[in-house]
Structures are given as C-alpha cells and as structure tokens.
C-alpha cells in the first residue's frame, strides 16, 4: 500500500498545467420593453359592460403598464374613440381600438398618467 508521502511525490513530479482563463462573456444588453395593453380578463370586461363589476375604475381609465399608459373607456354607442393626452410637448391624439362590448382601449406613449379627454363620434355628430 503506498504511503501518503508516495502520493505527494507523484503529485510533485506531475508538470503543472496552466488553466487559461476564459474571456468574460459580454453582458447581454437588456431587451427594450415593448409597451403592451395592460391585460384584463374577458369576464371582467363583460362585467363592466353589464354594469356588474365591483370596481370598474380598476379597468377603465388610464393605467401605467410596461413603459406606457393603457387607456380604456366604455363608449357603447361610439363608432370610434380618440384620446387626447395633454403633455408638456403638446397634445397627443391616440385612436383607441374597440376591445369588447363598447370598451375601447389603446396605448399612450407616456410613462405617467396625464390629463386626458376623449372624443367619440356618433351617428349624430361628425368625427
């Protein structure tokens, strides 16, 4: 049976291998945040339309989400809706898309909720 001193002699006789340091991997750039509508369950949208939602303002109005502001409004008789967001650089006019049962939704490319107004033409008024 080899003694501990034999093992250390063998280790001393082995040539030292130099381990090359691998270059640091470049840090991945963070992917830009793509603004998307704040998600809302279809059942909640339906409850808002029917007037049965316990907190409709948690869905309607401006809500910051992913680097923009999601705006939803209930305009059941509107053919289209445009939000006018007042910013320090001037007014932004953002057309909203019909989402569900008279609820229109869209994104305003600002990071904070600002004063908004909406316009919606009906059959009796011009756009």
Describe the structure in your own words.
There is one protein chain. The chain is α+β, with helices and mostly antiparallel strands and 127 residues long. It has a domain at 35-119: Immunoglobulin-like (Sandwich), CATH 2.60.40. Helices cover 15% and strands 31% of the residues. The chain has helices spanning 4-13, 42-50; strands at 61-65, 68-74, 81-87, 90-100, 103-108, 116-119. The protein has a six-stranded antiparallel β-sheet, covered by helices on one side. A hairpin with a 2-residue loop joins strand 3 (81-87) and strand 4. It is elongated. The N and C termini lie far apart (98 Å). The model has no long low-confidence stretch (mean pLDDT 79).
Radius of gyration, Cα only, in angstroms?
31 Å
Q: Which residue ranges are poorly predicted, with pLDDT under 50 across at least 5 consecutive positions?
A: none
Our estimate of the beta-strand percent is 25-35%
* Integer average pLDDT: 79
Order of helices and strands: HHEEEEEE
Number of alpha- plus pi-helical segments: 2
- Looking at this structure, what is the CATH superfamily of the domain at 35-119? Immunoglobulins
Structural class: alpha+beta
- How is the biggest beta sheet arranged? 6 strands, antiparallel
- The side-by-side strand order for the widest beta sheet comes to 1-2-5-4-3-6
Task: Give the CATH level 1 class of the domain at 35-119.
Answer: Mainly Beta
The CATH topology label of the domain at 35-119 is Immunoglobulin-like
Approximate helicity band: 10-25%
Number-wise, the strands total 6
């Amino acid at each position: 049976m080899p003694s501990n001193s034999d093992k250390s002699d063998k280790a001393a006789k082995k040539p030292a291998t130099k381990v090359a340091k691998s270059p640091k991997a470049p840090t991945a750039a963070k992917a830009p945040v793509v603004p998307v509508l704040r998600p809302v369950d279809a059942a909640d949208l339906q409850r808002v339309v029917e007037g049965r939602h316990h907190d409709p303002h948690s869905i309607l109005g401006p809500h910051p989400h992913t680097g923009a502001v999601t705006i939803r409004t209930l305009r059941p008789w509107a053919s289209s809706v445009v939000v006018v967001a007042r910013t320090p650089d001037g007014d932004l006019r953002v057309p909203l898309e019909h989402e569900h049962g008279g609820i229109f939704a869209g994104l305003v490319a600002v990071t904070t909720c600002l004063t908004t107004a909406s316009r919606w033409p009906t059959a009796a008024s011009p756009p």
